[in-house]
Amino acid sequence: MDGVAKVASAFRMSDEAWRRHANPWSVWTRFAAIPLMLLAIWSRQWIGWWCLAGVAAVAVWLWLNPHVFPPVSVPRSWAAKGIYGERMWLEDRGAVSPDHRAVLRLLVCTGLAGFALVAYGLVALEVWPTVFGATLVVFGQLWRIDRLGLLYEERSRGVTG
Fold it and tell me: What stretches pass through the bilayer (predicted)?
């Protein structure tokens, strides 16, 4: 089981949870959690260890998020198609075309670089690495969802790699 599959398992991603996570509200509120998590961690400067309450609140929300919104049975929105594509990718990576795999690998690198900058920025309390890193993370995630949405559309039409 690879890292992404382990994360999906930790979030208890059943068929129903995947359909609920495909709800655009689920996708966009997860993106909204990014600046909230950054603020919660940064707040250690002002409130000390109490910042962990904010970190815990965001972490609980991220765990609950894929389970609380109404399910999407037929993906029509960009976000829903991306989540359905993500599930396809997790279930059968061998069926993913080489061009999708290459871009997805690039996006993993982009996300890791962004995460490293965020981590440095939060430890050092430096604004620019934090903001630039978060921008890279969000950019990478948006592009990843877009690519996975294309994968969903291709596989739904019967186009293979």
Answer: 47-64, 102-121
Specify the number of domains making up the chain. Answer: 1
In three-state secondary structure terms, 125 is coil
* pLDDT digit string, tens, across residues 98-118: 888 888 889 999 999 999 999
Give the domain range for residue 120.
3-157
CA 127/CA 42 separation, integer angstroms: 10
Torsion of CA 138, 70, 85, 18, to 10 degrees: 100
Q: Are 41 and 34 a contacting pair, CB within 8 Å?
A: no
Tell me the pTM.
Answer: 0.84
Phi (first) and psi of residue 75, to 5 degrees: -70, 120
Question: Residues in the chain, how many?
Answer: 161
* Whole-number Å distance between alpha carbons of 11 and 110: 23
Count of CB atoms situated within 10 Å of the CB of 141:
19
